[in-house]
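hey can u check if this looks right to u? its 86 residues, i copy pasted from the old doc so theres a chance i mangled smth
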Amino acid sequence: MPSRTREQLDLLLRTVVSDVIGTEPDELHGATSLVDDFGVDSLELMEIGSRLETALGLCVPVGDLTAADTLGEAVDLLETRLAEPR
């Protein structure tokens, strides 16, 4: 699988999140907190994680997503996961 830039990961994450929570991708930014700003619950996080796993071909545990306080931290997580040997 070709590597993705941080910008591509950011766009993918914002697109997936917006699809799940019913908002527009441009309403989301690096400092957005899904829990604090949008009230995202664990089921929505599971759906987001599942969609990211499908799109990226890697495991994204819900615990990792809940540990990321902001979308920027979630992009950091995805970058790290993609850099790990499989």
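The chain has a mean pLDDT of 92.
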